[in-house]
Amino acid sequence: MFRLLQIELIKALKFKAIWWLGLVYFAVMASILFGVEAFINKVVSDAGNNLPISIPSVSLYSLPDAWHNLTYLASFLKIFLAVISIILVTNEFNYKTVKQQILNGLSRQESFWSKVLLQLMIALFSTAIIAVLVLILGVLHTEELSLGVFLTKSSFLFAYFFEIFSYLSLAFLIATLVHRSGFAIGLLLLYGFVVEPIISYKLPLDYGDYLPISAIGNIIQLPNSQLMKIFGIEFQEYIALNDLLITSAWTILFYAIVYVYYQKKDF
């Protein structure tokens, strides 16, 4: 496994575009997370001037709620990570790297698992970034720090990792079947923002929640806040096992399809 991981790291780090995308991803995430509280409070303050009741300021950074608040916001940027994954996977086919590795003695199973490790690396990279940002903002904005305060709701960090890894499995599937980065990115965006919402709208009841993008997005839902509680609105307080199971099923299916493709494809 370490050998496969080393191979993928060497190849990934050679692409300058990946470095630039990674830097843009980090810059955008840091900018959003560091500036979102001030922005929301400005909007709330302006809106509160026209209301008869006093609206409290929103605190997104204090622990333990910061785990949920910031992973929820960061999850909207997972398309950056999907683009990185798609570029790396499609380049393997365009430059005949997969074929060359198999000719050099790498088995089809090893080639497949090396790509799974690639998705795992990207998900871990993103999770490490959000963990550092949450710790920095949480420590700076939490009055009383304790182990209990620190660990409460930290499970949302795992939920974030799982959401990213699951989303990357879909990107991996599309990239493997299409082989062209621009087309694969377009298909991912088209399915996520057009096709699935239309299908979900046509389905009865809440069956749309079982579709892949919806299921992945349901893992970390809109957090509760004092502002919403004033208006009697309640949002997610915990990670639902049902959402994890549905997303797990899709993730296993996507990887299984790619695995069969690697076994059957004449590279």
Summarize the structure in short.
The chain is mainly α.
Folded structure, characterized:
- The mean pLDDT is 86.
- Helix content is 75%, strand content 0%.
- The two termini are 22 Å apart.
- The longest helix has 34 residues.
- Helix 4 crosses helix 9, helix 6 packs antiparallel against helix 8 and helix 8 runs parallel beside helix 12.
- The protein is mainly α and 267 residues long.
- The protein has one domain.
- The radius of gyration is 21 Å and the shape is globular.
- It has 12 helices and no strands.
Going by helix content, strand content and strand pairing, the class is mainly alpha
Number of helices: 12
Overall pLDDT confidence: 86
Low-confidence stretches: none
The number of strands is 0
Estimated helix fraction: over 70%
Topology diagram in text:
Elements: H1 2-13, H2 16-48, H3 65-74, H4 78-94, H5 97-103, H6 108-141, H7 147-151, H8 155-178, H9 181-202, H10 212-217, H11 226-230, H12 241-264
Helix pairs in contact: 1-6, 2-4, 2-6, 3-6, 3-8, 4-6, 4-8, 4-9, 6-8, 6-12, 8-9, 8-12
Considering the chains and any ligands shown, give keywords for the structure.
12 helices, mainly alpha
